[in-house]
Amino acid sequence: MAITLGPNQYGKAEVRLVTVRREGSVHHLKDLTVSTSLRGDLAATHLTGDNADVVATDTQKNTVYAFAKEAPVGEIEEFALRLGRHFVDSFEHISGTRILIDEHGWNRISGHDHAFSQAGSEKRTTAVTIQDGQAWVVSGLDDLVVLKSTGSEFHGFPRDKYTTLAETNDRILATAVTARWRYQGDGIDWATSHAEVRRILLETFADKHSLSLQQTLYAMGEAVLKEREEVAEVRLSLPNKHHFLVDLSPFGLKNDNEVFYAADRPYGLIEGVVLRDDAEDPGLAWHTLAAF
Questions:
Q1: Which residues, 6 or more positions from 250, have their beta carbon under 8 angstroms from its beta carbon?
Q2: Is 147 found in the same domain as 126?
Q3: Of the four, 97, 162, 232, 264, which is 20 to 30 A from 11 by CA?
């Protein structure tokens, strides 16, 4: 029986980076969590403890901070590309990199040049892989919480002896959107593209009369692909944040879709991929989201 070393990578996880760019009295804030991973011929350190080819994770952390000083961070996709290419270009034994960045939003307090309020739980994300001279960019967002109080139905599903859910032609539909979209190429206006994809997701959720959250998921992904040619595919994860009618009949009251309780768990989890049939081969793109 032979025992061999399989795929491996290493890096610095969750480097917290906050930058302040000053334009006179007006300040611009960036709040990021950056994770770096390096790949290559790293058998020696695993098998013998020889660290000659190991770029220390502390060095990776320091590189993140130094890059943030040497040039404006800019859009997270561009920052990730710069970091990833640096490690591949600077160390001969490093053949590939994976850079993950979450951006935590802050809003300027109205009327103030250098005071901010946190935007909430929503995060902008990117995952960049550099390998063999190619770059793959997968961007997205996490925890975009949305709700509409009508325009959603759910009925016609199978019933058996375990089914208790009542059918409805008018319900609250709520979810916390996790979205990832794969770009074709990397010469893209990242800020505009992200803002437009987010807008399309929101507008489609609001406008689409929904017969199921699955139908809404597909409509959201389809709308992005129809309007944004730089996007090859969209992956969505939509937890169904259930809102159930409260039974007010013991109090002699009628509940006409006005009073609900929000159940945080368990919840339905709807996930799916919407893609172009003529999109380029994703290559390593989705590996940016997995361990290897």
A1: none
A2: no
A3: 232
